[in-house]
Amino acid sequence: MGDLEKYSDRVRKFLEILSSNKINKISVIKNTNAIAASSIIILFLKEKNFTLNFTDNIMEENTLVIDEKYISFNDFKVEGLSSIFAYSLIKEANLENKFLNLILAVNNKEDVQDLIKEAFEKNLITEKNSFGFGGISRPINNSLVMSIDPFIPGFSNNEPIVNEFLNSNSINHKHCFELNDNESEILNKAALLRNPALIELKKEKNYLITNEDSPLTDLNEFNLFLEACVFLNKPSLIIAKTFMPKAYKNRAISIVKQYRDIFLDFLDWFYLNRKSNEIIEKDSSIIIYSNKLANNKKALELVYKNFFNKQDKAIIGIFDLNDKTEILIYYKNYNSEYNIKKLTEELKEFEFNIDKNFIELKINKTEKERINVIILNNLEAAKVEQIA
């Protein structure tokens, strides 16, 4: 992989730093890529004394800092995806077989095609063409019940209905990837009948981890485990699972279920309350008033994918947290850069952040109405791109 080669000189320098006694404090930004990298780097420090801190923001000196897109220690800094750089360390130490699945799970598959090829060559993963639902390694009934992407009203979070449907259609396979074409068509029609916004369910390429004996053998489910640990503030569980997979197998399965249940509960609530005053649907935006959204960006993404797929809309979540009101705006599929730019210009007097297709605001509750007007005036405005 090109990225691995470009790191060669930095790898040698960093290994020298790791072998010295200079590092006694590590701060890891709480995101899956950084935590995956830290799991690897710790391997090289296991004989040394150090403190490990997971944080949202780092301002310390004399600390090994691991973030999603850089690793630094004093005057040393390497930029790029931290997990890929960390993988180049274990390539040097011939330990890649133990960690390759972790690296694949935290990175966009299009960005690590060379590593996927390597994983196949080493028999670390296999491939299945299947509906994903709630994980292809779970029994098919459990997979449908736990499905959040897609969310299927009546199936998701409803085991009796799922079992009745499977029995009435004589679908008794253990896994989704065992469905024949006719059974797949039956399931596809049933899903679209319950949620027409899905447009069409398609079988996709899924990877299975050969040395994982749990629902986490599905690489997508393993990635969800990593997300869950960050979201539920259990980042150390990622490291523990990496080094002691069997001992932490049940904990890992449990936290993924807990994470899925959060979204199942929210998507159920959204589906049942679309006509309430807590959800307002406008031409170019959907406004959701719910404290269920607290710090939950993924929930807004799932609302878009499951209910407004391919529509030109922004999804706005508004919730109160202590004495503040927080607002999340998911604008990945909102097709007007001009309107988004105008919106951010008008928000300059407030505390806000832009990160990966999200605008995040934290305001005093007394400012809520004024902010709503500013947001809607911009997002619901005519789109210059379309007029031109």
Report what the structure shows.
Helices cover 44% and strands 18% of the residues. With 388 residues, it is an alpha+beta fold. It folds into three domains: 2-93, no CATH class; 125-263, no CATH class; 279-387, Alpha-Beta Plaits. It has a six-stranded mixed beta sheet, sandwiched between helices. A hairpin with a 2-residue loop joins strand 3 (64-67) and strand 4 (70-73). Helix 2 crosses helix 4 (82-92), helix 5 (96-106) packs across helix 10 and helix 10 crosses helix 12. The model has no long low-confidence stretch (mean pLDDT 88).
Structure in a nutshell:
With 388 residues, the chain is α+β, with helices and mostly antiparallel strands.
Overview features:
globular; 5-stranded mixed beta sheet; 6-stranded mixed beta sheet; alpha+beta; 18% strand; single chain; 44% helix; Alpha-Beta Plaits; 3 domains; 16 helices; 388 residues
Which helices and strands, and how do they pair?
Blueprint: H1 2-6, H2 8-19, E1 25-29, H3 32-43, E2 51-55, E3 64-67, E4 70-73, E5 76-79, H4 82-92, H5 96-106, H6 113-121, E6 125-130, H7 140-145, H8 159-168, H9 181-194, E7 204-209, H10 219-231, H11 236-243, H12 249-272, E8 279-281, E9 285-289, H13 297-307, E10 314-321, E11 324-330, H14 337-346, E12 351-355, E13 358-364, H15 368-379, H16 384-387
Parallel strand pairs: 1-2, 1-3, 9-10
Antiparallel strand pairs: 3-4, 4-5, 6-7, 8-9, 10-11, 11-13, 12-13
